[in-house]
Amino acid sequence: MKTKLLLISVMIMSIFMSCEPKDELKELQSQLDSKKIELSKLKLEVRNLQAKIDELDTDKMDKGIAVNVEKLTPLKFEHFFHANGSFEAVDYAYISPEISGQITEILVKEGSNVKKDQVLAKLSTDILENTIREVKTALELSTTVFKKQEELWNKKIGSELDYLRAKNEKQRMLDQLKTLQSQLDMATITSPINGIVDNIEPNVGEMAMPGQLMMQVVNLDVFYLNVEVSESYLPYLKEGDEVNINLMAYGDYNIDGTIYRIANIINPENRSFKVTIKVKNENSMIKPNMLAEVKFKDFESEAALVVPSIIVKKDFNGNYLFVVDKLDGSLVAKKTYVETGKSRANETMIVSGLQANDQVIIGGYNKVVEGSLLSIK
User: Fold this and answer.
1) What is the pLDDT of residues 303-326, one digit of tens each?
2) Which residues, listed in sequence order, are joined to residue 84 by a DSSP beta bridge?
3) Number of domains, the chain
4) Which domain holds residue 142?
5) Please, what is the end-to-end C-alpha distance for the chain in angstroms?
6) Are 72 and 175 contacting, i.e. CB atoms less than 8 angstroms apart?
7) What span, in angstroms and rounded, lies between the C-alpha atoms of 234 and 37?
C-alpha cells in the first residue's frame, strides 16, 4: 500500500514539474508582445513630435532644403555607337596550278616572305619538254618546205595550193610551239603578290591539279575591316568619317581609321549593311579574321545643353527635372518638363525645355517637389 502511494506522489510531482517550463515560456512571450506594442507606440509618438517640431521651427523653414546646383553652359556633345567586325587582307592569294603535273620542287616554307613573281614551286615538265623538241623538229622541216615552195611560187613554178599548204603548216607549228611554251611556263608556279606564305597543302611528289589549293600568300601591310552595321545608322555615316578601332585581342589597344566604303545593299536577314574600313598594319599586330570593336560617331553638336542622366525623371506627362526659380525673393524648386536627346555614359542632352544659364538641381533633387524652398550649398 505504501509503495502505491509513493508511485502516485512521484507521478504528480513530475506532472507539475513538466508544466512549469511551458507556463514560464508563455509568460515570457506575453511580455515580449507587450513590449513590442509599447515600442510601436513610442515610434509613432517620436514621428508626431518631430513633425510638430519641423512645423514650428521657422529657422529651419527659412533655410530651405539644401541642394547642389549646376549652371547650364553650352558645350560640345558627341555621341558614339559600337559595332564588331573582322579583318580581311587587301592582298590575299590562293595559289593553285593552271595545269596538271607532279610536284618536283617546293621552294618556300610556311612563314617565308616572298616577292611578286618569285618562284614558289615547280611541276614535272618532262613530257612537255619532249613534245616541244618534237614540235621544234617539225617546225624546222615545215620552215624548209615553206621556203622551197615560196621560191618556186615566186618563179611562177608549182601551184598556189602547195604554197599555201606549206605556209599554213609552218604557222601551225609556230602556234603549237607557242602553246606548249606557255604550258611549260605554267609548270613554274610564282607568287602574284608580295606577302607571307601560309598553309602549304601538298608535298613534293604529289600530283597537283588545276584549282587545287597548294598554298596561300597574304600581304599583311594593309587590311580591310568589315563591320555589319544596323540600317538605322545609315543616315549618319559617310565615306571618309573617322573611327576608332579597338583590337580586342590586345585589351585596350586602339588605332584610328577612316570609312573606306559603305555598301549599297541592305542584308534582308538582319537589316544591316557592310561598312569597310581600310587600315595600315603599321605594328604588324593585325591578323586575317581577327576581331575588332569599332566606335562610330553618329551625332555631334558644338553647343549642346547636357545634364546628368540620373536627375531626369519621368511621369505621365513626360520627362522632367528640377531647376532653381525665384518666388517673392526666395529660391524655390521648379518642376520643368524637357525633351531629351541622345545620351552618353552618365549624361543626357536636352533638346528643349531648358536654356543656357538655367540652374539645374543636381544634388538633393530627390528631396524637393514643386515649390520647395531651397538652400544652395
Assistant:
1) 999 999 999 999 999 999 999 999
2) 293
3) 3
4) 98-215
5) 94
6) no
7) 67
